[in-house]
Design goal:
By secondary structure, the protein is an alpha/beta fold. It is built from 17 helices and 11 strands.
Length: 417
């Protein structure tokens, strides 16, 4: 029964490209039609249990079946399998649009409101779940220069990951419209790459904050090695504590952190930022986002990758920020930049399989590459993108045209790393 149901389910999904399903009983099913640009994949189920898991919960079930060795990729890899499935139903496929049914509206609303409330007491534990697994893992696949665990920027296709992450830092620094002597807050500073870059190139003082003890220790080491430790202060502190201390900043930058805030805390986050900005202050928010309406986090991501995380829609992000009189002075949608970044990370993780298995185990390795492959498919064919939103408290804080952005970016890239 499970076999027939799964074949019927996957047969509706896979029409372009091919999927061959091999089973322990020796039976084989072939789905789809070969077509240029679509993968040719073969999978093998080692038991019927793996098939049942997928029927009960396609996303979580497929992930756990793959992690536990019940689903084995015989031709292609997990990146090809997830790309094949997503590419057959791209989010931006066009066609006529119908209004959602009442039941669908209710389900969407319930899922949205059931997203976890990410109060301060849970935030540190949620961050530790993902980032305190050990710095050694991240060294294996991130760019060597800046250790940027966020979307790179690809103005050219032929760039290396290192060049694309350097370009991302310059792109963001240009949007901050920095001036010498300014004080900058880096919310969610990671391993210090952004803070070090700004201190090196803009003659500013940076306060980097994180909730990850592993990140904090390495960020301090990296700043010392880069010779800019006297211009950077790294601290283990929640962003909500800073306004209570009366902290004020000329600039605020937040890259890849807003996804951890949680929808119920959006207004709290922006109020804290607004209260910390000087009257002519500028903020740059870089976040993964949804190209459609608000949604919910899938079960695999909630359970294994980012507990407490939530990917925001542009509408709810701006709705929260406008309540505290932050002016959205510039909005940029990065559509495929993260897909390119994730593919680079995936290639490096696969190349370092033995090292990752030695650090953790085979199941962790499979979980990790499933996460990277699924995220890639979401950015290539699903509804995910990145938003860069520039905010100001005063309408007079920035030049009237955007010419300054390109000029500053060229200067920064010309200065080198």
């Amino acid at each position: 029964m499970a076999k027939r149901l799964l074949d019927r389910f996957l047969g509706r999904v896979v029409r372009k490209g091919t999927l061959e399903i091999l089973r322990a009983d020796g039976s084989t099913t072939r789905l789809g039609t070969a077509e240029p640009g679509y993968p040719d994949v073969a999978i093998r189920f080692t038991s019927a249990a793996g098939e049942r898991r997928i029927l009960l919960d396609p996303r979580l079930g497929a992930a756990e079946a793959f992690m536990d060795g019940q689903l084995v990729i015989e031709r292609g890899d997990i990146m090809d399998l997830l790309a094949l499935i997503r590419a057959n139903g791209p989010w931006d496929r066009g066609g006529s649009l119908r209004a959602p049914t009442l039941s669908r509206r209710i389900r969407n609303r319930l899922a949205h409101h059931l997203e976890s409330f990410n109060k301060a007491r849970k935030s540190k534990a949620n961050v530790a779940h993902h980032y305190d697994v050990g710095n050694a893992l991240y060294r294996l696949f991130l760019d060597t220069d800046h250790m940027q665990y966020s979307c790179a920027y690809w103005p050219r296709d032929d760039m290396t990951l290192e060049e694309a992450q350097e370009a991302k830092l310059a792109h963001i620094a240009a949007k901050l419209a920095l001036a010498p002597g300014q004080r900058v807050l880096d919310i969610g500073c990671g391993w210090g790459g952004m803070a070090i870059y700004l201190a090196r190139h803009a003659d500013v003082r940076v306060h980097g904050i994180t909730l990850s003890e592993e990140q904090l220790a390495l960020a301090r080491e990296r700043a010392q090695a880069a010779g800019v430790a006297d211009r950077i202060t790294f601290e283990l502190v929640d962003y909500r504590d800073l306004p209570r201390r009366g902290e004020r900043y000329d600039r605020i930058v937040s890259v890849g952190m807003f996804e951890h805030v949680g929808q119920p805390q959006f207004e709290t986050y922006f109020r804290a930022c607004a209260n910390m900005l000087t009257a002519d202050g500028v903020m740059l928010l870089h976040t993964i986002g949804r190209m459609g309406s608000p949604g919910s986090t899938d079960a695999f991501t909630r359970k294994y990758i980012f507990p407490g995380g939530y990917i925001p829609a542009l509408s709810e992000t701006v709705a929260a920020s406008e309540k505290v009189r932050l002016i959205a002075t510039d909005v940029e949608t990065l559509r495929l930049h993260y897909a390119k970044t994730l593919r680079e990370w995936y290639v490096r993780c696969v190349a370092n399989r033995q090292a990752i298995v030695a650090m953790y185990d085979e199941r962790f390795y499979r979980m990790w590459i499933f996460y990277l492959a699924g995220a890639t498919a979401a950015f290539e064919s699903g509804g995910m993108c990145n938003y860069q939103i520039q905010y100001a408290r005063s309408r007079h804080a920035l030049p009237l045209t955007r010419d300054y952005l390109a000029d500053a970016e060229r200067r920064l890239l010309g200065a080198g790393g």
